Amino acid sequence: MRYTIYFAILIVLIVAAAVAAAAECPWWSIAVICTLAIACAFLLLHAVATPLSVVQNGIYLLREQDFSSRLRHTGQADADKVVDLYNTLIDSMKAERLKNLEQNRFLKLVVDASPLGIAVCDFNGKIIDTNCAWNNMQSPLLHEAIASVADGTTETRRLADALIVRISKLWFMDSGFRRRFILVERLTEEIASAEKSMFSKTVRTIGHEVNNTLGSVISVLDTMQDVYDSNSLEFNTISSCRNSCINLVNFVHGYADIVKLPPISPETVEPHSLIAALIPTLKGMAPSNIAINYSTPSSHVKVSLDPMLFERGLINIVKNSIESIGDSPNGLELV
Asked: What is the C-alpha to C-alpha distance for residues 18 and 301, in angstroms, rounded to an integer?
């Protein structure tokens, strides 16, 4: 390197001046040698000072975390090597910093949009950052449930009849130390879906077995009715048993229809027109002691609903009302 050459020349000149002085050479030769030594010393100082200045500037920029500034070449080979190394290092740090910022922003968006309640604690276990789902879940019951869960475990707790949550207390490493974070997941929808699926399966199984059994019983009762006179006590008893079996089959069918409702297909319609079209059918369902009246509304409002499910629901309501009125005189049902 250049400063090593200057240093070697300076040593040679100093030795030469010492030798000339010892040999009592002319004063002017000693002066020339000393002048050359002083010039070499300045060149050596400059060769060492320039890289040091570059290093100091780089340290200053790093201390200020200025990743946008770059060092310029000085024209000195040694200093320019330091400049190139610093600029390459700064480019790498800037790229890594930008990557971390983008990843942190993406992670923040994912956490905020997550249906899980997420809370991050500091090194002392105090919550310092939460997402929207966590803020919406807060309640005294949830705080008690979280406090009762041990670190590093996941437990399911029922906070209320309709609210079940899964709480996880986990940790991650930050600067060589553990930091806790807490996850809270609502399980109400999953459990309700599982219970509904189990209910549907149970109803379908029971309906299948009951229908098969009662089908055989009704067939036998139909055969027995042909044996007895239509006005006899035996015939009436068999007929009553047959009707009870048919009613039970219809009852099971009703439950089966509940668990296999078709998907909703909403349309924008006037409920008035649907009800008006059903009035003849509803009146045909009613016995003589029950009157069904429908009052036409003064204004027609359009709503979004499934016409088929609406008709089925209205027919079931009227049917239940008719069965409730029974044989009461002057029965009246307003639609």
From this structure: 116
**Alpha-carbon span 60 to 147, nearest angstrom:** 48
The DSSP result for 191-217, as a single string, is HHHHHHHHHHHHHHHHHHHHHHHHHHH
Per-residue pLDDT of the chain (335 residues; tens, 9 = 90+): 565 665 566 566 666 666 666 666 666 666 666 676 666 666 555 666 666 676 777 767 777 777 677 777 766 676 677 778 878 888 888 888 888 888 888 888 888 888 888 998 988 888 888 888 888 888 888 888 888 888 888 888 888 766 788 899 998 888 788 888 999 988 766 666 666 677 777 777 777 777 777 777 777 777 787 777 777 777 777 777 777 777 777 777 666 665 555 567 788 888 888 888 777 777 777 777 778 887 777 677 888 888 777 877 787 788 778 777 777 666 554 44
Beta strands in 52-91 (DSSP E): none
Q: Are 131 and 117 in contact (CB under 8 A)?
A: yes
Beta bridge pairs of residue 155: 167
165, 156 Cβ separation under 8 angstroms: yes
Are the C-beta atoms of 181 and 171 separated by less than 8 Å? yes
Measure the CA–CA gap between 311 and 275, rounded to whole angstroms: 8
Which residue's entry shows tokens 């399966």? Answer: 201
For residue 112, how far is the Cα from the chain centroid?
Answer: 8
The rounded distance, in Å, linking the Cα atoms of 230 and 234 is: 9
Task: Give the pair of three-digit tokens for residue 27.
Answer: 């004063």
Structure tokens, 30 = 């000693």
DSSP 70: -
Helix (H) or strand (E) holding 145: helix 140-148
Q: Are 290 and 332 in contact (CB under 8 A)?
A: yes
Q: Which amino acid is at 7?
A: F
